[in-house]
Amino acid sequence: MKSFARRTLALGISLALVSAAQAADFEDMDPITLRLAHVVNEQDGFHIAAVKFQELVAERTDGAISIDIYPNASLGDERTLLEGMQIGTVDMGVITNGPVANFVEEMAVFELPFLFPSPEAAYEVLDGEIGQELLDKLGDVNLKGLAYAERGFRNLTNSERPVTTPEDLDGLRIRVMENPVYTDTFRELGANAIPMAWTEALTAMQQGTIDGQENPVNVIHSFKLYETQDHMTLSRHTYAPAIFVMGTPAWNQLSEEAQDVLVEAAQEAAEYERHMNAEMEADQLDELRAAGMEIVEDPDLEAFQAAVEPVYEQYGEQFGDYLPRIKEALQ
């Protein structure tokens, strides 16, 4: 026990020395403020990740770099934010992988349905060689990928009926992200898949112009979707990463030391968010049930997986060798 305590103390001292050394690198730096935007509210995992990132960057640069956070799509939807980063009107954001894949299509490989069997399997791929290669590809479109946070495993909600098999989706108008893999996945499942921005989807659910949507538990909870959605299915059909991403114009104005701090802080904030999401999910499901949402916990996943096989046939080749490499890494 004493040995463990000594190791823990030594690690704490070591980290403190590293942090102090980093802060010393910024003593003569002119202060800079970076604008970080996302499209969800302050209860969401994206905001939790953003606040943690803000704290880590301030601490490690001794306040020389500060992060201003703009939640609730106050600077635009996710495509608008990414386009703003490219031209320098927005500095950075926490952005769902789906919209990012519209800029680097190989990123959509992660969106293939039922690809990852668990969060841990996803983390291993995202934090490893494959994930880093794809982050680096963002440089080709004037963006800089820092780290993978998470949106999480996505689940279906709707206002019409319980969904336990693909047949139950027949004809339901389901909002999906503006990403062809999502659109085609839900069309194969029999739904009327309607791509739209999240801000528009919230209004569409209230007005009844769509029947449902698909998102992780934390989103369903934080946006109180039980107010318009009576039914939820724990389909866990797709694991969706999110990305700490910067525009190249903002990235290039930073020193190498500052860039290193941002990459390290983004990775730590991402891992923190993952942990918090896992801790909060059980309580969130209980609260959704208490609010009146009917939750199907054991849908026929084999039937869902069989129904989406054509999506793999359609998209497998466009991702080059990434799909076989991911499958090999998951073995």
Description:
With 331 residues, this protein is an alpha/beta fold. Helix content is 48%, strand content 20%. It has 14 helices and nine strands. It has helices at 2-24, 45-60, 78-87, 97-100, 119-126, 129-137, 180-188, 198-207, 217-222, 248-252, 256-290, 301-307, 309-315, 322-330, and strands at residues 32-37, 65-70, 92-96, 143-158, 173-176, 192-195, 212-215, 231-247, 294-296. Strands 1, 2, 3, 4, 5, 6, 7, 8 and 9 form a nine-stranded mixed sheet that branches. Strand 1, helix 2 (45-60) and strand 2 form a beta-alpha-beta unit. Helix 2 runs antiparallel to helix 11. The model is unreliable at 1-8 (pLDDT under 50).
**Low confidence ranges:** 1-8
The H/E string reads HEHEHEHHHEEHEHEHEHHEHHH
Mean pLDDT: 92
Count of helical regions? 14
* Span between termini: 37 Å
Strand coverage percent: 15-25%
Largest sheet: 9 strands, mixed
Q: Indicate the radius of gyration in whole angstroms.
A: 21 Å
Spatial shape: globular
Structural class: alpha/beta
The percent range for helix content is 40-55%
How many distinct beta strands? 9
Please outline what is shown here.
By secondary structure, the protein is α/β, with parallel strands linked by helices. Helices cover 48% and strands 20% of the residues. It has helices at residues 2-24, 45-60, 78-87, 97-100, 119-126, 129-137, 180-188, 198-207, 217-222, 248-252, 256-290, 301-307, 309-315, 322-330; strands at 32-37, 65-70, 92-96, 143-158, 173-176, 192-195, 212-215, 231-247, 294-296.
